[in-house]
Amino acid sequence: MFAPICLDHNATTPLDGRVLGAMLPFLTERYGNPSSRHEYGRAARLAVDTARQQVAAAVGAHPTEVVFTSGGSEANNLFIKGAAARLKPGVVAVSAIEHPCVREPARDLERLGWKIREIAVDAEGRVAPAAFAAALAENPALISVMLANNETGVLQDIPALAAQAQTQLRGQACFHTDAVQALGKVAIDFRALAAAGVNALTVSAHKIYGPKGAAALVLDKRVELAPLISGGGQERALRSGTENVAAIAGFGVACELAAARLAEDAARLLALRETLEDGIAALGATIFSRNAPRLPNTTFFTLAGIDGETLVAQLDRAGFAVASGSACSSVSPEPSRTLLAMGVEADIARGALRVSPGRANTREDITRFLQGLADTVRKLKGLAAVAA
Fold it and tell me: How far apart are CA 311 and CA 334, in angstroms?
């Protein structure tokens, strides 16, 4: 099978061989239900408990604060809908650049009498101070601001935002941050975040070379949530259902590896990003959020006169896997909501391309991509000139 160079690791990552090795026993001979009292069940329970400790250690939390879910989308829904169910309808404030799995459950609350307050961002994609202050003035009961944007890679100053909310609202609001893209790329310390006023954060396995189908909501135990799924009472009765032991075990090992490799990976990916951005700048690219703190592996850019979806398709044929934005929004022909929120014109936003290298990528991959990009752009511009 033809295998293009993958430069789309913000969408997902390949399964690490060591993670697979940790999962295989629970797909074969250790097939027990963690709720069973016999040896098979005890082995499965030990795997879940071990993984809970590994995930907690990777984000500076206590194991009892880790609630396993099937994915980041479920974890985000669990917080927003679960917290809202324990409160009287009020205001839910979310940033204008949130992932759909935060934005859409917030919209769902409108049918229950809640009001959504969207927090504007500046031209670099950072939460605008005046907009955040205005949102706090409405006394929101729930606040969600992502730690790292999945398209631009922009990092928000979550401790400062949470501290401001904590002070102004006197601890009356629940503050959540979606940290799915941040895990494994920047340091996360839930203890420090909690001290600033963060009550919950979301992480996911498949962004860190773990399996799809495992994620966690890291939750301050003082926060009460209503479960989305009721039944057997698993996961502190917040997420009933027999645990996906193999995926959870893999998630734990992936977290342990990510924590051990964090500094090394971040430095190497940053060097690749700098090489990439120097190269695309030479081609005349506009790099979004270049002046903001970003993930070390993420570049979102546009080339004048080139449609993003067309460019993605042509680059795929040339042997390079990249994205025109969020993988979860790729079925939509609409321009990036993140870029529109940053004030980018729709025609320009439609041309955006996201490149996100991973652990296996090399400088040679970036050099080859830059050459492939230059060749593809020349081809597309030539076709456009002929058509004109």
Answer: 16
Q: Which whole-number Å values give the CA distances from 210 to 15, 23, 251, in the listed order? A: 5, 10, 5
Report yes or no: 246 and 23 within 8 Å, Cβ to Cβ.
yes
Tokens (6 digits) for 148:
């790292």
* 61 burial type by CB count under 10 A (0-12 exposed, 13-18 middle, 19+ buried): buried
User: Which of 255, 345, 362 minimizes the C-alpha distance to 302?
Assistant: 345
pLDDT in tens, 174-231: 999 999 999 999 999 999 999 999 999 999 999 999 999 999 999 999 999 999 999 9
Angle between helices 363-387 and 308-318 (to 10 degrees): 120
Q: Among 81, 116, 45, 297, which Cα is nearest to 200's?
A: 81
| Tokens (6 digits) for 327 | 């993988």
Contacts by 367-375 with C-beta closer than 8 Å and gap 24+? 367/275, 367/279, 368/5, 368/320, 369/5, 369/7, 369/276, 369/320, 370/276, 370/279, 370/280, 370/283, 372/315, 372/318, 372/319, 372/320, 373/279, 373/280, 373/283, 373/315, 373/320, 374/283, 375/318
Q: What pLDDT, in 10s, does the model give residues 319-361?
A: 999 999 655 554 556 899 999 999 999 999 999 999 999 999 9
Percent of residues in the chain assigned helix, strand, coil, to nearest 5: 45, 15, 40
The number of C-alpha atoms within 13 Å of 78 and in the hemisphere containing its C-beta is 33
**Single pTM value for the model:** 0.95
Residue 317 pLDDT > 60, yes or no? yes
Residue type, 281: A
DSSP-assigned states of every residue in 95-112: ETT--HHHHHHHHHGGGG
The distance from CA 354 to its chain's CA centroid, rounded to whole angstroms, is: 14
Quote the DSSP letter at residue 121: B
- Which residues are tagged catalytic? 328
**Residue ranges of domains in the chain, CATH in brackets:** 5-13+262-387 (3.90.1150.10), 17-256 (3.40.640.10)
3-state DSSP call for residue 1?
coil
